[in-house]
Amino acid sequence: MARLFNELLRHLPSRIGNEPRARYLARHAQAYGDGSLVGRGCRVLNLSGLSIGTGVIVARDVTLDARGGLELDDEVLIGFESVLLSHTHRSDEVGVAIQRQGMFSAPVKIGARAWLGMRVLVLPGVEIGEDAIVASGAVVTKSVPPRTVVAGVPAQVLRER
After folding, report:
1. CA 28 – CA 30 distance, rounded (Å)
2. Active-site residue set
3. Residue 1, SS3?
4. How confident is the prediction along the chain (161 residues), in pLDDT tens digits per residue?
5. DSSP state of 46
6. How far apart are the C-alpha atoms of 71 and 53, rounded to whole Å?
7. N or C: less crowded end of the chain, CB within 10 Å?
């Protein structure tokens, strides 16, 4: 199922592609709320693990990795070229090649009305609290409290909202 989305529907221009993408995601994702929009060029890994609330906007060229579970609460805004990972390589064993250590998954949750700027990277197991803002280019390695602004590599709290 995801193959059709990733190879065809994701490439349709916005003016003709928004509605077919929404219909497809509403049918095949775990949840897809009214008024949500997943932009052109977005890649979805494991549709059955993806849950999108109402009024969510995912800008162009975003990767939504739902292999470990991915939940975008109501009115989340994701900036273009962001990557949300819920599945990645293990790296616990020093002296053993990464590709031989296997993979691990951990769910990612983005709280209501959170805003992730452009080119944000969110790693597996991270929860971003409601009304939080993640600055462009941030790498989010640990959970972000609600109503905070974070930035940097790795992302650090700058202030409360």
Report:
1. 7
2. 89
3. coil
4. 556 555 666 666 677 778 888 888 999 999 999 999 999 889 999 999 999 999 999 999 999 999 999 999 999 999 999 999 999 999 999 999 999 999 999 999 999 999 999 999 999 999 999 999 999 999 999 999 999 999 999 999 999 99
5. -
6. 8
7. C
